[in-house]
Amino acid sequence: MSTSIFSRPLAEETVTSPLRLAALYKSLLGSRWKSLADAVAQLSAMNIKVNKTRLQLAVQVSAFPQVILDLFKGVGLRDFHARRLVKAKAEHGLAALEDRAGRLDPTGLTGPQIIAALCDEGGAEPHRRVTTRTNPLGLASAYLDGTQKGRWESTREAAKALGISHRLICEALAIAKLPEELKACFTEKTLTRSTGKQLLELERIKGKDLLRKAALEARAAVPRLTEKALMARLAGVHTDGVELKVKRASGRLVIEFHCDADADKLDQKMHWLAFWAQRALAEVR
């Protein structure tokens, strides 16, 4: 066989599809190569990058009953799905997967949702409880749970499956990575997307260590700080001597920032003016 039959489009299509890769291997087994290792070496020489583990996975999944493989005709079966199918076979048995596949309608389902249904994990049901109104910590938890259960393997795939924007998931994951001492100052209800984004900005300005220290001091305050006072303490601007007012006048939004004209601290207070202006705008939207 001449290597010229492997045009670039054909090679790319072959290496991205486990079933096509397995079909190629089987069609030339005995004539072109004698083993998996031999096939990998010859394919590599033709600039088709395939390792032995991936080729072995492709061959394994290609042996699955057709009723299972047919479920992926619409979405396309990829390596991620193949790995999950092989794992599901070990956990549930091939007979159970085949039985569930025979009763499953894949219409409208993503690849991860099909896998979840085959593994009897409730399919897409958990996705319906996640919306654009879900708080950041809840959304981050849902994403990590779906990743662990094989519903998706990336934030973009999760966004598509959940029907929300990719940015929302990325923001939620970033907020979830804030210091534990800081998150403990809020409840899931009060740690909204808007507040979380402001905390991320504070972390960028002050750094994790200073913000963690400020959070510990704020939690120890007696009486318990209100949300506005808490944000002020975290920002390093104490409410005494500082006042922020937002009002509308003549169809315009007016933000008034009042502080003591203390020469030693005035520069610091002005440094946080932009932060407080952003918070005010977030509250009136």
- Rounded to the nearest angstrom, the radius of gyration is 28 Å
Fraction in beta strands = 5-15%
Helix content: 55-70%
Q: In one word, what is the shape? A: elongated
Q: Which ranges are low-confidence, i.e. pLDDT below 50, for 5 or more consecutive residues? A: 1-10, 123-129
How would you classify the helix and strand content by structural class? Answer: mainly alpha
Residue-averaged pLDDT: 77
Distance between the termini: 67 Å
What's the main sheet like?
A: 2 strands, antiparallel
The total count of helices amounts to 17
Q: How many domains, as an integer?
A: 3
Order of neighbouring strands in the sheet with most strands: 1-2
- Work out the number of β strands: 2
From N to C, what is the helix and strand string?
HHHHHHHHHHHHHHHEEHH
Can you put this structure into words, describing what you see?
The protein has 285 residues and is mainly alpha-helical. The chain folds into three domains: 1-63, no CATH class; 125-175, no CATH class; 178-284, no CATH class. Helices cover 58% and strands 6% of the residues. The protein is built from 17 helices and two strands. It has helices at 8-16, 18-28, 36-45, 52-62, 66-69, 79-92, 94-102, 111-118, 136-148, 155-162, 166-176, 180-183, 193-206, 208-219, 227-235, 266-271, 273-284, and strands at residues 242-249, 252-259. The protein has a two-stranded antiparallel ribbon. Strand 1 and strand 2 form a beta hairpin. Helix 11 packs across helix 13 (193-206) and helix 13 packs antiparallel against helix 17 (273-284). It is elongated and about 90 Å long. The N and C termini lie far apart (67 Å). Residues 1-10 and 123-129 have low confidence and may be disordered.
